[in-house]
Amino acid sequence: MYTTAFLDLPHLASACGSVQLPGSKSISNRVLLLAALSQGTTTVHDLLDSDDTRVMLQALQHMGCVVEPSAVVAGQPLRITGIDGFLPNNARGQLFLGNAGTAMRPLTAALAVLGGSFEMTGIPRMYERPIGDLVDALRQLGCKIDYLKNEGFPPLHIGQPDFSQLSDAPIQVRGDVSSQFLTSLLMALPLLATNRAITIEVVGELISKPYIHITLELLARFGITVRNDNWQRFVIPAGSRYQSPSDIHVEADASSASYFIALGAIAACDSSHNASQNGIQVLGVGKDSIQGDIRFVEAAQAMGAVVESGPNWLHISRGAWPLKAIDLDCNHIPDAAMTLAAMALYADGTTTLRNIASWRVKETDRIAAMACELRKLGATVEEGQDFIRITPPASRADWKAASIHTYDDHRVAMCFSLAAFNPTGLPVRIEDPKCVAKTFPDYFEALFSVSQASQPAPVICIDGPTASGKGTIAALVAEKLGFALLDSGALYRITGLAASRAGLDITEANAPAIADLVRSKAITFTPNHRVLLDGDDISLAIRTEEAGMNASRVAVFPAVREALLQVQRDFRRLPGLVGDGRDMGTVIFPEAPLKVYLTASAECRAERRYKQLISKGLSANMADLLADLQARDARDMHRAAAPLKPAEDALYLDNSSGTIDEAVQQVLTWWEQRQPFTTSA
Ligand SMILES: Nc1ncnc2c1ncn2[C@@H]1O[C@H](COP(=O)(O)OP(=O)(O)OP(=O)(O)O)[C@@H](O)[C@H]1O
Ligand SMILES: Nc1ccn([C@H]2C[C@H](O)[C@@H](COP(=O)(O)O)O2)c(=O)n1
């Protein structure tokens, strides 16, 4: 997941390949709560690991459920032993539920029926999301719920209910604000229906029926068959008791699929792929899905997408181009419909999405957010209380390179990534990309894995002499931008070490053998910054001064440099790369848009290197270090092959007196000056 302040998506030209989607958030959190209320242990497969499921799991553990392991581990099922309809004695606590509506609303209902003493809290946006209609419905039953701040909104306090006045009268709930209120009652009230049937009556038109369909399907899996009288009345039978189904599989998220369905419809396939590889394959959800958002497929088809499907897969390719503008009532696909707003940027006219009032009370006011950000890209947008109307930029020249504000809303971030396929060749900046953690933490990684940029990924080169600070500054710049990192010096250090371990003297005569040796070795840079040579951890061994000197000696040989050329270029990937070394800007990436030549006085470098070695527990001597460093500079600068020198278009940065942060900031400022983005509103 990208945890940077922003993520710059280079202009994307084509997309092709296969994506495995994470589990559905709606199904995951429903399954977790139902398993928690049940008798028995439920093994949950393919659970989504996201912010919303994490807060739900923590809450369930607070309620006395046994969860093993205590958090989601990739590829492993999770076992939940339920409370069989009763909280432990004196159950109490504060439950922090972030911005997870799928946790706040159903847990409020379940705990209000179960009792105990709980404070339900969240982030500030949660306190703007209405819950009054649910609380009113629960109070009809005798539940004890108090508002801790504003009437009608979380945070809440839930106390011990009094069901002495409970009658057979139907419980009424509004259905026209959020279907989560009805879902919450449907999941909580079986706890009260042990010896009487309970009827829920919907007041107003029920929105988002597909989400109620998911709830009913899952209730049935946990032993509760609810009678649905035309979406107006729901009858929970007497004698209800939650029973674990033992094993349950969470299907992939159909709304997450919408971004890749749109991608298949928008992006041409790279001509280097053959016809059979054409398009985007989505794995984990298909035509047998119980999720209403699967009907996004029909909307995408109406806009021109060509979609084939199997029980749990979809294949999407471009059909009509430009896409066809549509006018659609989106009540049946409230979440996925946001993706249509992004697709509308590529349509042949004005697209209108209607009956989307619920967008206004989601993670953010989504109608306002989409309108504002689409306008930044050059679209003309009209918004109403329950509709949005989008006319794409009139011509290529009318597209703008925008910095997209994401409002802590995962769907805004994912939708606007599709703007990177604009016809003008512009990049798109996505602010706060980590907001996708709510449903699809690795969304951007998945997007990059199937997308091809119109230009090779951007590279920032940082070259300079030994111990000038290249590695330190390069790593920090890469971290800030979410770019990959190439420590090219490490490759020469590994080569020098491999040669000595193989008993090869570093001589010109041995240069071809050393080059062959490095070609035959498996070199791995692990995500936690370890360096492996054929599986052996050599992270520390390559950091000695001797290893640095040997690196400088092998680096003189053209055959070695040739052997490492493609290895280095292969580090280039989306969204970009920072390369540190001696010839990044002159030889390896001569077309890089930013080249920095980092210097510092020899004395300053020797002193910093001294401190660096001592801090790693390696021995060092200042006088020797200074002499070695000067010898290394001389060899690196005066060798015939790719000598250390500034590229003609390099910018000089003297790192002798400033701080590390100042040097990093300078590089970032130069980078920013090369970007075309208009700033956020
Ligand atoms: N501006 C600075 N102020 C203080 N210390 C710094 C500064 N810049 C870098 N350093 C420190 O200097 C030491 C050497 O930096 P670094 O290892 O990044 O250099 P390098 O150029 O990558 O070296 P090499 O070429 O040998 O790989 C590190 O301990 C780093 O933290
Ligand atoms: N692009 C590069 C990177 C490194 N080298 C050589 C010369 C250096 O002295 C040696 C070790 O590099 P360091 O880890 O200290 O950055 O490797 C090179 O020739 N070209």
TrEMBL record:
Domain of life assignment: Bacteria
Catalytic site: 335 (proton acceptor)
Domain Cytidylate kinase: 460-670
Statement: the UniProt record of this protein carries the keyword ATP-binding: yes
Binding residues annotated for ATP, in chain numbering: 464-472
Residue spans crossing the bilayer: none
Protein EC: 2.5.1.19, 2.7.4.25
Catalysed reactions, semicolon-separated: dCMP + ATP = dCDP + ADP; CMP + ATP = CDP + ADP; 3-phosphoshikimate + phosphoenolpyruvate = 5-O-(1-carboxyvinyl)-3-phosphoshikimate + phosphate
Function: Catalyzes the transfer of the enolpyruvyl moiety of phosphoenolpyruvate (PEP) to the 5-hydroxyl of shikimate-3-phosphate (S3P) to produce enolpyruvyl shikimate-3-phosphate and inorganic phosphate.
Quaternary structure (record): Monomer.
Protein name: Multifunctional fusion protein
Recorded name of the encoding gene: aroA
